Amino acid sequence: MTADEQSTPRTRDFLANPLTAAFWWGLPLAAGWIADASPIPRPESTSVWAVALAWMGVGCALNAGRHRRLHCFIAAPVLLVGALSVALAAAGLAPFGPHGASYLINGTLALALASFVAEAARGRYRRG
After folding, report:
1. Are 27 and 56 in contact (CB under 8 A)?
2. 128: in domain
3. pLDDT at residue 128, as a whole number
């Protein structure tokens, strides 16, 4: 058994390490908020959010698979579906109205954040 396999999930958890947490979740959030505050057109800033949500979804998928973080088992599909929905809205292919992309972005982030509730009830890491 390798040292990596012997380590506890906590020591390998992306969210437990400030650098990896900043890389997978801080950087894309900052990019989305900067895009919102910048003077670039709405479709382009919405596209930045689509990429940011996908980036965070991949980080959660990796964290769930390798480190068994319960929140990430829930948040990964939420973020990836949100990214796809936001990308469709940015491309004008989803009729969500003038504020639809904002609702999708905020709803996706709220659901991903709410997935931490599962950890309070079931524990931080999945077993088995």
Report:
1. no
2. no
3. 59
- Domain containing 52: what range? 3-122
Reply yes or no on whether the pLDDT at 50 is more than 60.
yes
Of 41, 117, 43, 45, the closest CA to residue 78 belongs to 117
Q: How far is CA 9 from the centre of its chain?
A: 19
Domain-located, residue 42 = yes
pTM here is: 0.85
Residues forming a β-bridge with 125? 69
Average of per-residue pLDDT across 90-101:
84
Q: Is 127 part of any domain?
A: no
DSSP 8-state secondary structure symbol assigned to residue 70: H
Closest CA to 51 of 8, 80, 14: 80
Give yes or no for a contact between 89 and 46, defined as CB atoms under 8 angstroms apart: yes
Number of domain units in the chain: 1
